[in-house]
Design brief:
alpha+beta, Rossmann fold, OB fold (Dihydrolipoamide Acetyltransferase, E2P), 2 domains, six-stranded mixed sheet, five-stranded antiparallel sheet, binds adenosine-5'-triphosphate, ATP-binding, nucleotide-binding, Putative sugar ABC transporter ATP-binding protein, ATP hydrolysis activity, transport
Length: about 400
């Protein structure tokens, strides 16, 4: 059975330093929610608080209607998968998977090695546990490795043991802390689908921690972006990509990251980019404004089949390409600000450019103004009405 999870103003301090700032979050029963953010932002701490493995100074944690703030980890209907897998090296795969059931169902003397076997009633309980372990092992294709030790397994197999150990408890909530980060790229993609299938099969609530935004975007029904101990934005992967409310979210979601040009608009000289005047729909005296646009929204003006009305155009100095397959990334630099700019274009377009010769220092890039994001000096998104005002081309051009 799945359970909803509610965090109410959860705050955590380590050595007097605030790690979590009154975090509140509602996760529906059966949802797959991912906590994503850079290293050290507090994701694992939040997950460990939900698991009951870390105490916190203030705020409450609910599972369903139950306030579990004071409940010990063993009484919470959760299973956690750790980044390191945390397998017992001296135990076999079967023993590792059986551990949560043995702890829950067998009295302490019945768990003793050798002597425990003679504890009244323990034989039947052990048989039942063995059956459940075999059933779970079969679900994650570990049935032939039940007698191996963790040191004899590959990274992917160890990860499966950790998942099987979490599954055997049949928890209401799965908590996963970067479970794929120790795997190579190919296995990571494969295990990603297995985790998605596990979520579907169990119908349980999943709370998943990663710093990998691709994992977050592909697995989750909703993503919470955590920065500096705060949840900056929660939404569907698509909403975070298309409608970031904060410059940190805009930069974090999307690969390669969003291009940002910093414009200064003072009352005397109007808008400028690193001292060079530019014509942009920025009110004089607006101060510092960040103009964001995604690499896939940038096109090469010379190759455009149709002009974009009111396109924002600027010159760029080409530096290098990275071929991805059908598309390539064009790494450029704005000539005045030296800010890096990345454009994504079909490889065929780049070949067309190359065929013209001597193109690299006279590249004109353009963006549809409807595909731009505007942020104020503090990094908050400026309302769309502002971005929709008339856009004029940047007049400074490489001839
Ligand atoms: N036991 C601890 N004692 C002191 N400080 C800690 C402890 N655990 C975490 N911290 C600090 O709290 C902050 C958040 O750590 P946390 O592990 O939650 O971050 P994270 O977002 O999961 O990072 P990562 O992706 O690198 O695992 C970090 O600055 C970390 O150094």
């Amino acid at each position: 059975m799945a359970a909803s999870v509610r965090l109410e103003q959860v705050a955590k301090y380590y050595a007097g330093k605030r790690t979590l700032h009154e975090v509140s979050l509602d996760i529906a029963a059966g949802e797959f929610l991912t906590l994503v953010g850079p290293s050290g932002c507090g994701k694992s701490t939040l997950l460990r608080i939900i698991a009951g493995l870390t105490t916190h100074e203030s705020g409450r944690v609910y599972m369903g209607d139950r306030d579990i703030t004071a409940s010990p980890a063993s009484e919470r209907p959760v299973s956690m998968v750790f980044q390191s897998y945390a397998l017992y090296p001296h135990m076999t795969v079967a023993q590792n998977i059986a551990t949560p059931l043995r702890m829950k169902r067998l009295p302490a003397p019945a768990r003793w090695p050798l002597l425990g076997r003679f504890w009244p009633g323990s034989r039947k309980l052990r048989q039942q546990i063995d059956q459940e372990v075999s059933a779970v092992a079969a679900q994650v294709q570990l049935q032939n490795l039940l007698h191996s030790r963790p040191s004899q397994l590959s990274g992917g197999q160890r990860q499966r043991v950790a998942v099987a150990r979490a599954m055997v408890k049949q928890p209401d909530v799965f908590l996963m802390d970067e479970p794929l980060s120790n795997l190579d790229a190919r296995l990571r993609v494969h295990m990603r689908s297995e985790i998605a299938a596990l979520h579907q099969r169990t119908g349980a609530t999943f709370i998943y921690v990663t710093h990998d935004q691709v994992e977050a975007m592909t697995l989750s029904s909703r993503v919470a972006v955590v920065m500096d101990g705060q949840i900056v934005q929660v939404g569907t992967p698509r909403a975070l990509y298309e409608d970031p409310q904060d410059i940190r979210v805009a930069r974090f979601i999307g690969s390669p990251e969003m291009n940002i040009l910093t414009i200064t608009a003072n009352a005397q000289h109007g808008a400028s980019l690193d001292g060079e005047p530019v014509q942009l729909p920025v009110p004089a005296g607006a101060g510092v404004i960040h103009l964001g646009f995604r690499p896939e929204s940038v096109s090469i003006a010379d190759l455009a089949s149709r002009p974009i009305p009111n396109a924002i155009r600027f010159s760029a100095i080409f530096e290098r390409t990275e071929v991805l397959g059908h598309d390539a990334l064009l790494f450029c630099r704005h000539p005045h600000s030296n800010e890096p700019l990345v454009a994504r274009a079909p490889v065929a377009d780049i070949d067309r450019l190359r065929a013209r010769g001597n193109w690299s220092d006279r590249l004109i890039l353009q963006i549809n103004p409807a595909q731009t994001f505007w942020f104020d000096a503090q990094g908050s998104r400026i309302p769309p009405a502002y971005a929709r005002c008339e856009v004029l081309p940047i007049h400074k051009r490489v001839s």
